[in-house]
Inverse folding.
């Protein structure tokens, strides 16, 4: 019985045919990259959504690797401080590590290039304090390239001998940092994702690391999170894990056709995900499909009182409120009662003062019981790539 062996092929920037679907997709996605985001959703609301989607990305990345923590289970740890009831503490820790790694990228990507040191730090954060296999998803040598040969689960591809990893990774990092025309950025990101998996440089955590590696490349090339663009590459891969592995295997052939098919799969998925999530910049859509149904859900479940529901609906309708906007809800009562109710909702983390305007407030839902309704509404409108 023949055994699979490592097969080398060169890392090249394969160019698609001018008339191909892939070329059309690159042009369309490049347009979205350069297009000012705009929209009518208040900045503080949109950035709460951004952080929420980043958490979903971390959950999705962990789920691809076999972490069974559900969306509901993970978000309950943000709502409740009762950590003793957590069923899978190491699964939760793995996801929190991924969130921390994403924060590391956002804090450092503008001032640092994606080099060996950047990659090493990312990997250290991803595997920090996790048990070693087979009991967990840690790594014996965090941040260091592997010193053993290994096989990839669910793949016929055999990664290169460990002594060649350093050279292959140096080549890959030179490839992504080379000064090519911007039109190649998206194609390079797709090719680099596969090449990273093909090399499998670390002893463990390669899948989680490569998906954040891809996120870092996309942010570096202009999908700027700080202007409100939500980019979630993991959604492309976690929505259908079998398809993800099949397309990686297609690229493993090392042919131009295989690499281009893989690249089309990645770039098409990114475009569809961006177009979908950009709907949330339309406040009328967000209000009617996500925010108001969240209040209805919270009232039905008795997470909030009727009065709190009325106040929050008023906040949603007006985007930003001050105490004078609520007078009709407190007819015959002193203004101090309005202030007391606002403070109560601030304490419950359901209202937050607008930046530099302590007496004006916007809705908050990122770590309170409203989050349950937000997740439910996003799911009902097909915004969740992960199905529990």
């Amino acid at each position: 019985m023949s055994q699979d062996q490592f097969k080398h092929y060169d890392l090249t920037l394969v160019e698609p045919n001018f008339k191909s679907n892939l070329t059309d997709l690159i042009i369309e996605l490049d347009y979205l990259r350069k297009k000012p985001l705009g929209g009518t959703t208040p900045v503080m609301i949109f950035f709460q959504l951004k952080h929420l989607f980043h958490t979903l990305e971390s959950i999705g990345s962990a789920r691809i690797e076999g972490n069974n923590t559900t969306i509901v289970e993970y978000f309950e740890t943000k709502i409740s401080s009762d950590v003793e009831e957590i069923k899978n503490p190491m699964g939760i820790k793995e996801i929190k590590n991924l969130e921390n790694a994403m924060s590391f990228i956002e804090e450092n990507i503008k001032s640092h290039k994606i080099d060996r040191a950047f990659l090493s730090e990312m990997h250290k954060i991803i595997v920090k304090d996790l048990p070693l296999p087979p009991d967990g998803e840690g790594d014996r040598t965090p941040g260091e390239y592997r010193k053993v040969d290994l096989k990839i689960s669910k793949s016929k591809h055999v990664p290169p001998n460990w002594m060649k990893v350093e050279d292959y990774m140096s080549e890959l990092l030179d490839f992504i940092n080379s000064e090519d025309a911007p039109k190649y950025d998206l194609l390079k990101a797709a090719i680099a994702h596969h090449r990273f998996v093909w090399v499998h440089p670390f002893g463990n955590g390669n899948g989680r690391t490569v998906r954040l590696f891809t996120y870092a490349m996309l942010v570096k090339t202009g999908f700027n999170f700080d202007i409100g663009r939500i980019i979630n590459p993991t959604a492309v891969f976690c929505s259908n894990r079998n398809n993800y592995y099949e397309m990686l295997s297609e690229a493993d052939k090392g042919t131009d056709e295989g690499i281009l098919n893989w690249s089309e799969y990645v770039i098409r998925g990114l475009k569809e995900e961006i177009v979908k999530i950009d709907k949330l910049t339309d406040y009328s859509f967000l209000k009617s499909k996500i925010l108001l149904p969240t209040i209805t859900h919270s009232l039905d479940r008795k997470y909030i009182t009727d009065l709190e529901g009325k106040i929050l609906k008023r906040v949603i309708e007006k985007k930003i409120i001050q105490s004078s906007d609520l007078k009709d809800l407190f007819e015959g009562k002193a203004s101090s009662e309005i202030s007391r109710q606002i403070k109560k909702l601030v304490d419950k983390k359901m209202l937050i003062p607008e930046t530099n305007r302590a007496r004006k407030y916007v809705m908050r839902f990122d770590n309170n019981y409203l989050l349950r309704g937000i997740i439910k509404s996003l799911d009902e409108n097909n915004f969740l790539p992960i199905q529990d």
